Every structure is written in C-alpha cells, then in structure tokens.
Amino acid sequence: MSIIAESLGRIKPSPTIAVTTKAAELRAAGRDVIGLGAGEPDFDTPDNIKAAAKTAIDEGKTKYTAVDGIPELKKAICAKFKRDNNLDYEPSQVSVSGGGKQVIYNALVASVNPGDEVLIPTPYWVSYPDMVLLAGGEPVFVPTTAENGFKMKAEDLEAAITPKTKWLIFNSPSNPSGAGYTAEELKVLTDVLLKHPHVWIMTDDMYEHLVYDDFKFATPAEVEPKLYDRTLTMNGVSKAYAMTGWRIGYAAGPQELIKAMAKVQSQSTSNPCSISQWASVEALNGPQEFLADWAKVFEERRDMVVDMLNAAEGIFCPKPDGAFYVYPSIDGCIGKKAPSGKVIENDLDFVSELLEAEGVAVVHGDAFGLSPNFRASYATSTEALTEACTRIQKFCASLTE
Known about the structure:
The structure is a single chain. The chain is of the alpha/beta class. The protein folds into two domains: about 5-45 and about 290-400, Aspartate Aminotransferase, domain 1; about 65-285, Type I PLP-dependent aspartate aminotransferase-like (Major domain) (Aspartate Aminotransferase, domain 2, 3-Layer(aba) Sandwich). Helices cover about 40% and strands about 10% of the residues. The chain contains 13 helices and twelve strands. It has helices at about 15-30, 45-60, 70-85, 100-110, 125-135, 155-160, 185-195, 220-225, 255-265, 275-285, 290-310, 345-360, 380-400; strands at about 35, 95, 115-120, 140, 165-170, 200-205, 230-235, 250, 325, 360, 365, 375. The strands form three sheets. The chain has a seven-stranded mixed β-sheet with strand order 2-8-7-6-5-3-4, sandwiched between helices. A three-stranded antiparallel β-sheet has the order 9-12-11. The protein is globular and about 60 Å long.
C-alpha cells in the first residue's frame, strides 16, 4: 500500500516550474539555453523596498506576527485598494499570505465542499484547476478563443453556471494570454453574475500594473459594487514590484471568508515572513512612479516579440493587453517534421523539439488548457528575447512537410 494520499493522484506538478528546472539542468550540462518559462520580472527589487527590509532586520522585527498579516501592512493594503481601485476595505477584511498562490489556496480550502464547481476560463494559470482539485472541488472550464481576444463571452459564462457553481476565478490581465478586460467588457460579465447570487468571484489582479497602450485596468467589485459582498479581490507585490521571492500576496473580501482563510493559514504556514511584510509596507506606501517606467520597457519588449513571432512560419501571435506573456498559436506547425525526424503532433512535441534543437525553453499550451499554443515570457532582457525569437524563427523554418 502506498504512503501517498489518493488526492495527490488528481493533480500534477507545476509545468512552468518543470520547464524552468529542465532549462537549468541543460545549462548545467553545458547547453546554451534561453529560458522563457518563468513568470518573474528581470528587474531588481527597488532600493527603498530593500532598505525597509534591512531596517526591519536591524530593528529586530524578526518574530512571529499575526497569522494573516501585521496591522501596518493591512492598513497599506486598504490604502492601495482605495487609491488604485476605488474599493473600501477595513483591515479586518484583509488577508496576507505567503504569495498569491497561498491566498487562492486558502480561499478554496476554506470555502469549497466536495462536488462544488469552480469556473475557470481557458487558457488559465496552471495552478488554478489543481488547487480546486486539492480542495475537493471540480474545475469547470469556460472556453475562449484567440479570435475573441481570449476573453469570456457572457453567453459562455452563463452556460457554464450550474446550481453547484461556487466560484468564478477571474484573471485580468491573464496569465498566460495577457488578455485584459476593459470596464465595459467586465460589466457584461458582472451582469450575468448578478443573476446568480450563489456564485462568488475570486479575482486574480496580480498583473494590474502591467498594462500597455491605452488599456485601463478595472476589477469586478469596482465595476459592479453589488458584487462587493461576494468578491475576493486578490493581488500581491510579486510582479509589479519585482518581489517574486519575497512571497507576499494579499486579498480583501467579506470578513467571514477572511476569518476562515486565517483559520486555514493558522494550521498550515502561520504568518508570512515578517521581513517581507515590512518590505511590502514600503512597496505599497512608497514611490509608485517606477511602475509606469517598467511597464514601458515591457511594452517595447512585447511589441518586438509579437512582431518576430508573427514572422515565424506557422505561428500566429496575438498582441496581449498586459502581463508579460505571449500565447501564440502553432497550428501552422502541426503535422510537420522536426530536424530530429519527429513529427510535431501537438504543442508538447513543439516545445520539446524547440528546446532540443535551438535551446529555447517555453511552456506548452496544453498545460494552460488551450492548444495548440505555447506561452513565452518576455520578462527578460531585450537581447535574450531577440536571440530567442530568432532561434524560434529558425526552428520553424526547419520544419518540413
């Protein structure tokens, strides 16, 4: 009899972490590999944030804190929601965890009963369905298409809702597609949700500050205040402030849910890192001007990557509204033969052969629930991106009928 719990048989390891690990192994073996799998900015954490962490250490702020966050950080989070999203929350409505992933996991474990359904638009961040499964729920996927900008249509959302639906997990701008919903597009969806009072909304706003062109970010509870009492608005410092390793995510929502999430956290990890919390206070309260400067750099990289990938044979790459990913279709490459002699039958074959032939690591679309595609992160240097896209063009040109 195996020691491993049966519940683990329902999930798989993170494919994005697997790609990053594989790329690192190949580099260690002497291969020239460009990794476009990881979703983290290549910028360094700003100096004022690092200084706040050092000060916290020097002042001895190294002990246990309240399970779900220090009062100073909860106050800063409330101020952020008011400043950026016109949402009013009290500190008692705020939860702080070891990253956005823990926020989502805590919320699902605290609220999902066996058989509850959780709606997840495709393509989705790889962890959503597995966290739902670990919590005992059933992921239900809402389809989108590239032709519709990878955005849910109201009729598809309506069709997916059943009496068993507990949550809709909503991510804008999206990982992996970069699709962002305008306030007008959101209003169409919130009108559907108003008709179904048993459905709660969990928003993943982690890429809020990474939007391009004239796109204006909006979040569901801001667009439709009537949904405020059944919305958990999640965010974090990881992407916007280049603090992925600091592991701080946060959310605000109804007090009953926040208390339940704290109960879960109290019996799992307890409080997030005290030093990271103090650094996050400075991140949210300190200067914000650099966010626009960083977004401009990402926008320039996005434009270059989209242009270069669309110049590759067999690839169509839509232009994303935000985040730092592209999600191109490789439909034109399916059925062709790679230099190794392997026939490209799906997107996993494509990314495997691309890594072997040209040393470029990307993540196959099937991991995100929509194929045949791949996800590439442009959160790396312009030089590395140019070389990676040149190699992808070369690989596509090498494919034969």
